[in-house]
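Reply to dn_fold:

You asked what the input looked like. This is it:
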Amino acid sequence: MPTVGDMLKAIGKLPMDAPKPIKWLGGKPEECEACHGTLGSIFYDCFVRQMGAWAIVCHACFRSHKCKLGTGAGQKYNSKTLEKVAG
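and this is what came back:
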């Protein structure tokens, strides 16, 4: 007789399945909207208070503009995979 785990596995709903990564939905960002430099291996989509708007920024600008991560503040993405890393 099949176990509950066997039945869940058969329909692809095992509780220990890892969640799918959250990905950047737009085109791949090429440059920082604050300094116009290259983004490097990560980029941030965050609110930049000095600009008064959300922007795609490099790590240096994220730090210098004192941006933050989290809901309503910003997210961090891997530039190669476009997967969300934090925030």
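The radius of gyration is 18 Å.
Hope that clears it up.
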